[in-house]
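ok trying this again, last paste got cut off
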Amino acid sequence: MVSNTLSARRFSPAGGNGVHRPAPSLKHVDATFSSSADDGAFEGYASLFGVMDLGHDVVMPGAFRESLARRGAGGVKLLWQHDPAEPLGIWTSIAEDQRGLHVRGRLNLERERSREVLSLMHQGALDGLSIGYRTEIERKDPETGLRRLERIDLWEISLVTFPLLPQARVHAVSPTLAKSGFFVSSGR
């Protein structure tokens, strides 16, 4: 199975070719979200539209539409570092919005790896998201090498240490032990 990897980035001013360049700093959303999710719930952006990743790929708006219609959130795997032998839980919601690919997931806390990941997320040591996919339609600029990904078959989204799109981040994590029913800001 061949998989390319992307992750979401913060928007920065467009260059001469209309593509947003990676920003030098990260912007994190501090917010509280009401939820009835069990412990291990989190959310963030797995991809941002119009933002170039470190591999010179840009995901275009609507790129995930057909794949999400076919698979739904339940058909996209939640993995650790893109390892198919390391599932962490489930995606409860995956949707395109104006900014990019917004995701909500829930870690399976019966697995030791998921408990470790949740602990690292609360500590702020782990917050990267990265997509695994097959490109269906792309346009490549022969002068710059920039690839505009217009249609993507999304297979999985991983929690990762170093996302290829540095702004692809978890923005909110549920309390580890509390049964409050609320997400809390991850503090970043």
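PB: full thing came through this time. Residues 1-14, 21-38, 176-188 have pLDDT under 50 and may be disordered.
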